[in-house]
Amino acid sequence: MSRAYWNEEIETISREALEVYQLKQLKEQLTESYTKSPYYKQSFDKANVKPEDLQSLEDLIKFPILTKHDVRERQDVAPIIGDLCVKGEEAVVFISSSSGSTGVPTASPFSKRDFDEFQDVESRLFWQAGMRPTDRYIHALNFSLFVGGPDVIGAQNLGALCIWAGTLPADRLLFIIQQYQPTVIWTTPSYAWYLGETAKQKGINPATDLAINKIIVAGEPGGSIPATREAIEDLWDAEVFDFYGISDIFGACAAACEAHDGLHMAEDHILVEVVDEKTGLPVKEGERGEMLLTTLRKEVRPMIRFRTGDIVTYTDEKCSCGRTLKRIKMVGRIDDMFIAGGVNVFPSDIEHVTRKFESLTGEYRVNVIEEQHITKFTVEVEKRLNDETDTKELKEKVAYEIKMQLGVKPKEIIILEEGTLPRATHKAKRLQDLRQKA
Ligand SMILES: [Zn+2]
């Protein structure tokens, strides 16, 4: 009989015991940072805090926040790994490099122990998603510089048969999937959808002709939006598991379990804070806030209170799967948020709605516009080819549902023909900001 957990002791630990462990680790990580990293010495001194000021986990709020900008800047000061590091390059065995979509790429360094622990966390999260040694796993993520590339080793260490596919064109990937009949795949939600639709066009039914029964997704909130998840699940006749990763820490830091009610964070390695993005004060369980992450065991580069730019909600309640580790729910990237009618709007809020309509393909795009200094938005959706619903009626229904979801009405719903919006092969671009930049 197969065991339920990869690491039962950690995954079902009581919150009290976990916090005792986290506090011990955090003290060590802060002391290392302060005594060995020029950056942290300087930033703690500037904020007038010392590692000894941390007596409880709540005291972490006294310590300065670390931004992506800081990481980039300190990399320039001390190339190539930056002076946030507490060990020199001789301790480093691996670096991943961020995509650089918002500036110069930053290197994320790992010691041998960091890397091995990273992979053990990946094995745990794969196990949690139901992967077993009998599975065939196809890793369809980018291997070039990307921190998600090596995650395949976690699947291999778990005992699964691993196929290192990387990012292949859909035709080629489908050919490989037909040939080897893997049972588990990892890709983005948009690509899972695109790949399934492409298969259908080629006369392959992903639900019956392919063996995939689990789809791991990450990189977009879709995997945790029930309507999106169900649409992908129906297309493939497979269960979708949402994962969360960040290049500065691990390829995956959190993952869904069979309950699909939030992603369990690897809290023995990563301390989670969820704060109001303006005041920096902690928000309550269930409220939206920006996630800050602090590493608890990183040997080369500790990350203390790193701003992820991800808006989440969290709960510490024990999950029905038996795990006690904190669960987060992704709302969206702070960069994709805009304010309309006094409401914070994320594309994922709109996705919740557009995926509910049978008449629509599920593809959508949000356009942010400005009229007389007032921010408004329009939503483009696609009507299915042979759908007979009246377009005017459909527009009104979609607008109404969005108003119910957000509390603010879109200026217009634009109904397009099926196949008009660009299909994503990696991360879907759902937001167009058409406002005049000052
Ligand atoms: Zn669970």
TrEMBL record:
EC class: ligase
GO molecular function: phenylacetate-CoA ligase activity
UniProt keyword list: Ligase
EC numbers on record: 6.2.1.30
InterPro entries noted in UniProt: AMP-bd_C_sf, AMP-dep_Lig_C, AMP-dep_synth/lig_dom, ANL_N_sf
Residues of the AMP-dependent ligase C-terminal domain: 342-435
Residues annotated as domain AMP-dependent synthetase/ligase: 88-293
Pfam families to which the protein is assigned, alphabetical: AMP-binding, AMP-binding_C_2
The name this protein goes by in its record: Phenylacetate--CoA ligase
